[in-house]
Amino acid sequence: MNFLDVLPYGSFKLEITNIASDKSISHRSAIFSLLSDKQSVIKNYLRAEDTMCTLGIVSSLGAKISDIDEVITILPPKSIKEPAMVLDCGNSGTAMRLLMGFLSSCRGFFVLSGDKYLNTRPMRRVADPLRIIGAKIYGRKDGEFAPLAIKGSDTLESFNYESKIASAQVKTAMILAALKAKEKSVYMESALSRDHSEKMLRAMGADIKRDKLRLTIAPIKKPLQPLDIEIPNDPSSGFFFAVAAAITKGSQIRLKNMILNKTRIEAYKVLGEMGAHVEFIKKSSKYEDIGDIIIKNAPLKGIEVSKNIAWLIDELPALSIAFCVAKGKSKVRNAKELRVKESDRISTVVNNLKRCKINAKELEDGYEVEGGNFEGATIDSYGDHRVAMSFAIAGVLKPMKIENIDCIKTSFPNFIDILSKITKTEINER
Question: 185: number of CA atoms within 13 Å, CB side?
């Protein structure tokens, strides 16, 4: 098992151009390319373990994939191939849940599985609504856990479905099924979740209309237009370094070529409300608004985070590190979804904060953190990439040892390279 030692350097000023490409859009680009009958061109695709698994699945379904000079092209098959093997989603809940929706509407037999962590994550939140419209999905504990077997059909019913959770993954799975349903479908969100899917699919020619929290999806009568996309950098990945700058006296970071979609930058706005200087500079707009984000250190104050949780759910572990150095108490509420991520992130974050001598309390739907004298510690990542990277970032202040760091490769392969520019890092093995 590898572990990472991180030691502080002091203040820094850094411009980062090579933050990991956006994982959400990378997964979607690969899967959505199968909805066209022409070749899609994808630049700056994230080359992390999870997204490469998704690309491998697309190939197994019959697509011809070329990867030359950092440009990936995907030529979809005339019809989806029934694979002779299990489709490996790695550690990615996004890939598995999106593919459940897509494959349910494709004629054939498919089996989805993943690593030991993914195969313990809940899947009935997607399986149950899909079953209502005729999908045949089987798995352990009645489809709650992978491996999942899907008997796909091109005769799914349309639907009028109201989701009780704000989940972009559930929403996208249902949209993908609706695109091949018999008639128009309606999907109601409980709150606005990340909206990359509907934006990308509209740009490809899908008829998807939004009225507040109501989406109306018309079935496609012909293949969609192919993608021609350069994937911007991932604000969720960039946020680790935003926190590093915010908590280190005299420090500043500029994150280049970032998605500025409002459902993706909420954590940065929270950091600004805590007192950090945060500036957004829009530079272009095609599938998404894209630009730079500047973060400068300033004294931080405690805050309650209970709104727009779906917009910053992935950034909450890193935000907890900012809570540690803020004056006063911070609280996260309405974030029960944290319990079904790569780890139970409420429990894993609180347990690791306590190792750092921070007064932290676990709540059913979040946690409380009292800012104080943060101390270095040995951290258990629990195989969760965001937990590992969040506590590694704390190494800008105090010596940290992060156990089981291989999980970082699933989403941010060059994280440690960038971290080494603002801290002293060393990978060891025991």
Answer: 28
275 and 150 co-located in one domain: no
Q: Which residue has the tokens 């191939």?
A: 81
C-alpha torsion sign, points 355, 356, 360, 362: negative
Same domain, 143 and 175: yes
252 and 165, same domain (yes or no): no
Residues 8 and 30 in one domain: no
Helices marked H in 257-359: 266-273, 316-325, 345-355
Beta bridge partners of 255: 16, 293
**Sequential pLDDT tens for the chain (430 residues):** 688 999 999 999 999 999 999 999 999 999 999 999 999 999 999 999 999 999 999 999 999 999 998 899 999 999 999 999 999 999 999 999 999 999 999 999 999 999 999 999 999 999 999 999 999 999 999 999 999 999 999 889 999 999 998 899 999 999 999 999 989 999 999 999 999 999 999 999 999 999 999 999 999 999 999 999 999 999 999 999 999 999 999 999 999 999 999 999 999 999 999 999 999 999 988 778 899 999 999 999 999 999 999 999 999 999 999 999 999 999 999 999 999 899 999 999 999 999 999 999 999 999 999 998 899 999 999 999 999 999 999 999 999 999 999 999 988 999 999 999 999 999 987 6
Where is the domain boundary, 182, 197, 219? 219
Task: Just list the catalytic residues.
Answer: 314
For residues 177 and 257, membership in a common domain is answered with no
